[in-house]
Write a structure and sequence with these properties.
The protein is built from 5 helices and 5 strands; from the N terminus they run H-H-H-H-E-E-E-E-H-E. By secondary structure, the protein is α+β, with helices and mostly antiparallel strands. Helix 1 runs antiparallel to helix 2.
Length: about 180
Amino acid sequence: MNAGDAPIVELSQQGAGLSAQLIAILLIAAAAVVSIFLIKKLQQRLANAIAEDKQDELRLVSRLVRLLVAVIATITVFDVLGINITGLIAGLGLTGFALSFALKDAISNLLSGILLLFYRPFERGDSIEVGNYKGLVKDIDLRYTTLCDTKRTILLPNSTLFTQAIILHDHSQEPSS
């Protein structure tokens, strides 16, 4: 074997390693996409089978599971690429700590939305009054609750619903403006 042959062998071995990494990454990505698709299909089937008042919890759990699949796939891809993720996770922890101060209102609305979905002080279709706002509850999302009155649609941040008194009106009562 000539001295000039060694780099060719090393390059072909590196190419084989990169090909294996690429195939592994593509398989991980395909598995993640298929998993997320199957989770959405399962959510749709369960939505038809469960009671209307449990739909919001189902959407929340489905979103969280899909996010978890994406995070696990990303961490696995980093591992396949040989990236040390412990330093990355530590850095993300510090970044998350700093971002939590910057996004405290958004996080407050998110956590309030989760608590609203589980404690259910009111439901869709209920007539409620919070502060100067009164209307029928049209939707309860993670960030805000949608109220409709006779003239407008009101997007009320969920944290407001936890810091102010909520007046529940009779279901048959129409909200007044």
